[in-house]
Each structure stands twice: as structure tokens, then as C-alpha cells.
């Protein structure tokens, strides 16, 4: 541990919450020496198919053993060709979606930056509407549309031409958030120009597991159509099957103009980001948005294998079954522990909101206790008061149940140490 503290930058974060040295991982388990930890973090959503998935790993090994192209800029390569063909035949065509694929830099924020730049180029406007509670990345453009003020503290120029609108969460129950947004657009004295685009998450993951209602998303799509505004869906964390269907917006039967994918699109935790663009919006000039690592060949191989793997095990059906278990467990075993606990989620992303306890350390103490008991889990939301459940989608049911039992024990242990009432 000393080498990290002595030589690694202070910017490191996850390792501070999970202070051990990990050396191995398989499926839904991470190992630190002989100690096993159930993984309810899943690479912050980058490991939907688990650690070292056998099917995906074998495809990557076979590719490497052929001395195939490892780095290819945006050359035409066999790995890219196979991914595009598979993505088209397995995802886009069956869903009647017509998108062009732009391969961006390695991480999600690169694709968000591309989406913002393209939207502004198409509409010849610079304004962007985002939402309170949003998280879209840590580079300048992405950070400018991220709601967390703490992340932006002391950095000048990030809020220029970005307007934050209320998101439909519990605190906004008395506000029709889209009616308010439309009022801003139509009021000649609002002081806010019509934007090039509105970017949104169907589930605000880092914002506290806030799930947008279907009707709200449908109205948002309609509003963008009526006012000639592009709609960008950031599906980085909750796409690739996290909410059940491959795209999280499918449940609302809407089609965004631009869709951002990353994290689990590569299937194996390899860096890859992707921007889906309606064909009529693809007005880029050659090389106008570029990057040395926009052609991660191993990620293409992993992504193709992941799409095959999804079909082989009927993953959507698996997610639905586990969603039923999680929803039932959390509402029957966790929420009754104390009336101040709030449960939210969809698919295989769920949150235990402890903000009503008015104890800034409670969620951290529970997550620390979970780690002591062999579970890796993180906190999100305002003041990090929401415990986020984000296991691999293919987690074994017995491991999922054990992880949830650890949460139950940790929550009861930590509440018992305080003066909070714990239900029998």
C-alpha cells in the first residue's frame, strides 16, 4: 500500500474506499490475496458481463494469437467491420433504429464531447440544456453539463452557454419540469436562448438513481421535435442492458437524435466509446473530430463477442428475473428497517437513499461495513447519501442474494450503533 500513497497522485478515489490490493477477478468476485469480495460496483458499470468473462476473453485471446491489428486509428479493419456488422444486425436493425456509428476516444466523456460539438455544428447554436443532478464526464465540455458544483469548483468558464433544468425527482414533485422548460423557451423575457440540444440520462446514476418516468421522456422527445432541438441520450452507464433492454430509452419508445455509449460497450472493460448519429445529422468533415485511440481493436473484438454472449444466454430475460428479486428484496427486507429509507431503481441499478437520516456519514459507514463483510459497493447522489447497487448483469443468483444479505446486515449493524429506531 505504501507505494501507492508515496507515488500515486492524490486524485485517486475508489482505492480510498476499498483499501486493499486486488490481484484477481472472476465473474462477480474480486480477490485480494485469499480474501473474496462480491462486486456490486462492476467497474462503475463497465463490467456488465462480469470479470474475465470466458466467452469474451477467448475471442480476444484468439485475436491476439493471430497477430491481428492491435492499433488502427480509424483504418478499415476486420475487427471494426465485424463489430459494425454485428451491432447493425443484432441491435439496430431489430429495433428499427437508423444510426451512423462514430468511434470516439477511449472514454465516455470523449463521446459526450463529440455529441456536444456536433449538435452545435448542426444547429449553429452554442447553447445546451442539461439537468440538475446530471453527470456526463470530467473533461471541460462534459463537466460543463454536469450538475455537481463541487466537481467544478474553481474551474472558470465551465457554465458558459449551459442551462440546467429541473429533473423529475422526488424534490420536484410539485413542479411540471417540462412545463417549466417550455416556459423558458417561449418566454421572450426568460433571458435564455433556445439551445442546440438537450442532453439527458434516462436514469441519473451518479445523481442518486433517479429514474425518469416514461411519460416524461416521451414529452421531452415531443418538446424537442416541436422546438427543433436535438435530443441527446447519455446511455454510458445505464445502456448495454443495464435497465433490461439494450438501450435504456427503449421503454419509452422514443428515438434520440444522438446516443452516447461507453463503459460496457466493449464487453470486457476495455476503453471504448461510441456516438450514434441519425444519418441526416452526420455532417462532419473528414478528420474534424479525431483521436489517436478511437480505434481500439481489442475493444471491437470484445464488443462483438459481448453481443454474441448476450444472445447466447438470453441476457434480457436474466436481467428481468434479477430485477424482480432486487425490487422485492429491497422493498421487503431493506425499506422496512426504517421508514426514512427510500428505495429507487430499475433493471439492475438500484439505490438505497439514506438522505432523510440527516447523517452525512451513515451511507459511508454502511459501505465500509459492507467492505468488511466482503462486498464492494459505492455511494452516489447529493452528499453521497445513496448506496448504489450495480452488480454484473450475469451475476449468479446465489451471489446476488449473498451480496444483498450483506447490505441488510451492514445497514442493521450501523443503525443499531446510533439512536435511530430499527424495526423488528
TrEMBL record:
<dbReference type="GO" id="GO:0047307">
    <property type="term" value="F:diaminobutyrate-pyruvate transaminase activity"/>
</dbReference>
<dbReference type="InterPro" id="IPR015424">
    <property type="entry name" value="PyrdxlP-dep_Trfase"/>
</dbReference>
<dbReference type="InterPro" id="IPR012773">
    <property type="entry name" value="Ectoine_EctB"/>
</dbReference>
<keyword id="KW-0808">Transferase</keyword>
<dbReference type="InterPro" id="IPR015421">
    <property type="entry name" value="PyrdxlP-dep_Trfase_major"/>
</dbReference>
<dbReference type="InterPro" id="IPR005814">
    <property type="entry name" value="Aminotrans_3"/>
</dbReference>
<dbReference type="InterPro" id="IPR004637">
    <property type="entry name" value="Dat"/>
</dbReference>
<dbReference type="GO" id="GO:0045303">
    <property type="term" value="F:diaminobutyrate-2-oxoglutarate transaminase activity"/>
</dbReference>
<dbReference type="InterPro" id="IPR049704">
    <property type="entry name" value="Aminotrans_3_PPA_site"/>
</dbReference>
<keyword id="KW-0032">Aminotransferase</keyword>
<comment type="similarity">
    <text>Belongs to the class-III pyridoxal-phosphate-dependent aminotransferase family.</text>
</comment>
<protein>
    <recommendedName>
        <fullName>Diaminobutyrate--2-oxoglutarate transaminase</fullName>
        <ecNumber>2.6.1.76</ecNumber>
    </recommendedName>
</protein>
<dbReference type="Pfam" id="PF00202">
    <property type="entry name" value="Aminotran_3"/>
</dbReference>
<comment type="pathway">
    <text>Amine and polyamine biosynthesis; ectoine biosynthesis; L-ectoine from L-aspartate 4-semialdehyde: step 1/3.</text>
</comment>
<dbReference type="GO" id="GO:0019491">
    <property type="term" value="P:ectoine biosynthetic process"/>
</dbReference>
<dbReference type="InterPro" id="IPR015422">
    <property type="entry name" value="PyrdxlP-dep_Trfase_small"/>
</dbReference>
<keyword id="KW-0663">Pyridoxal phosphate</keyword>
<dbReference type="GO" id="GO:0030170">
    <property type="term" value="F:pyridoxal phosphate binding"/>
</dbReference>
